[in-house]
Amino acid sequence: MSGRVLVFDTTLRDGEQSPGCSMHGVEKVRLARQLERLGVDVIEAGFPAASVGERESVRAVAQEVACTVAALCRTREEDIRAAAKALHGAARPRIHTFIATSDLHLAHKLKMPREEALRQAVAAVRFAQTFFPEVEFSAEDASRSDYGFLRDVVAAVHEAGASVVNIPDTVGYALPDEYGEIFAKLSRDVPGVTLSAHCHDDLGLANANSLAAVRNGARQVEVTVNGVGERAGNTSLEEFVMTLRVRGESLGLSTGVRTEEIATASHLLSSITGIWPQPNKAVVGRNAFAHEAGIHQHGMLANPLTYEIMTPASVGAGDSSLVLGKHSGRHAVESRLKALGVVLKKDEVEELTARVKELADRKKYVWDEDLLALVACVPDTHVRLVRYQTLSGNQLLPMATVEIEVDGEKRSASAGGNGPLDAALKACDAALGLDVELLELTTRAVTGGKDALAEVVVRVRHGGNEAAGHAASTDSIDASLKSYLSAVSAARAAVLEAAA
C-alpha cells in the first residue's frame, strides 16, 4: 500500500459550520486559492443544497482552482443535482454524499431501518455517478455503527462506484485503538476500497484518531485549517501534516502539502473569521515557537533541536522567538543583546537580567525596544529612589511623599505641587536638601500598548553644572523621578569633584 496520504480540506464546509466562522463567497475563494498553494488534494467547498448563496460560493471556488473540488450532499436526488450544478465547470469535480449508519442516528434522527439506509446510500452513489465519475460516500457516525452493517454499506457503495468511502468519527467519541481497528477490518474485508478518516475533536483525540486510521489503511484524511469545525472542531490540518513530516520515517507516510504555506493559511483564515488560534495551539499558535523559560532558552541557543522538533521556517512562521520575561535567564538576554549589536560585560548582563525580570513582572514581555531602553538607563548607585506615593485629582491639591537613598543614607520628604509629578519632584528636592533647577524633561512610550515602557530624559542644573539623567519604567512618574535623581547625582558629583 502506498504511503501517500491525500489531504481533504473541509475548512470551507465543516470548518465554516463552526459558530463565527461563516464566510462569504469572495472570502471562500480567497481561502481556496491559498489552500491550493498549500497543496491540499481536495477542497470541500460547501453544501450547495443549503442555500442559493452557498451554491454560488461552491461554483465560484470550483471555477477558481485546479485541484479536486468536492460538494457535500445528502442522499436525496435534489441535493445531488444541486451539488452537480454547483460543480459544473470544475477541473476535477467530486460529489460527496452521506447518510448515517449508526442505530442511534437511524432510530432517532432518520427514523428508518438499516435496509432503507443501505438502499439510499447505493442509489445516491449511482445517481451521483451519472454526473461525475468521482464520488465519495460518508457513513455518518460510523465509529458508533455496528461493524457488520458498516462493512456491508462500505462494500455496497464501493461496488456501486464510490471512489472513496469515508468513515467519520462524527462526534469525536472513538479511542485511537478502536478507530484504527475499524480501518484495519475494512481494509481486510473490503479489499481495493480507498478509505478516508474524518475526525472531530470533542475529546481532543482527532489527530490521534486520524493517525490511527492511516496506520491501519486509510489513505485520505479530512482536515481543517486551525482545526475549526463543529463543536470542538476537526482534525487540524497543520497538526496532522506536520506529524507526518516530523515522524515520517517512523510512520512511512507523507502528504503533498507544502508546509511552508501553513502559517499563511492559518493567518488568512483567522483574518477572515476574526477567530485566532489559542496562543499554545500546536504548530500555528503564537507561542508554538516561543521560549521563555531560561533553561529552554539556554538549550535553544546551544542547539534548537533541544526544544524544537520542527523549525518555524518549515511551516512559514519565520524565526523562533526568545521572549524575554520573568523566567528568562542571562543567556537569553545576552543573545538578544548580541542580535541587537550590544556588547556588555558579564556583570553588566547579570544586572540587566535582573532588571528585565523586574520589568517583566510589570508588563509580562520585554521587547527589543524595551531592552535597549534598559541598557541605556543605567541605575545610579549614589542617589536612588526607594519609593514614592502621590495623591491627586481634579478636585484635590496634589501631594507626594518620596523616600530616597543618598550614599546609603535614606531620606524622605513630602510636598505639594501643580500636579503629581511636580509634587514628587519638589519632595525630592526637599529630601536632597539641594537647590536644583529642572531644565528639561521629555518622555516617550518605548513600545505600543497601555503597559508600554516610558523612557524619560531629564536635564538639570546644580551649582553651575548641567547634567542629564535617563530612566525607564512602566510607571511614567517612577521613570521621571529615577531620571531626575540620576541627573541630580551626576550634577552633584561634578560639584563635589570641582570642590576637591
Outline the structure in words.
The structure is a single chain. The protein has 500 residues and is an alpha/beta fold. Helices cover 41% and strands 22% of the residues. The chain has 17 helices and 16 strands. Helix 7 links the parallel strand 6 and strand 7. The longest helix is centred in the C-terminal third of the chain and has 24 residues.
The number of helical elements comes to 17
Radius of gyration over C-alpha positions, nearest whole angstrom: 33 Å
**Order of the strands making up the biggest sheet:** 1-2-3-4-5-6-7-8
Mean of the pLDDT scores? 89
Task: Please tally the β strands and state the result.
Answer: 16
> What is the CATH-assigned architecture of the largest domain?
Alpha-Beta Barrel
- Contiguous low-pLDDT stretches (5 residues minimum) are none
Helix content estimate: 40-55%
Task: List its salient traits.
eight-stranded parallel beta barrel; elongated; three-stranded antiparallel beta sheet; alpha/beta; 500 residues; TIM Barrel
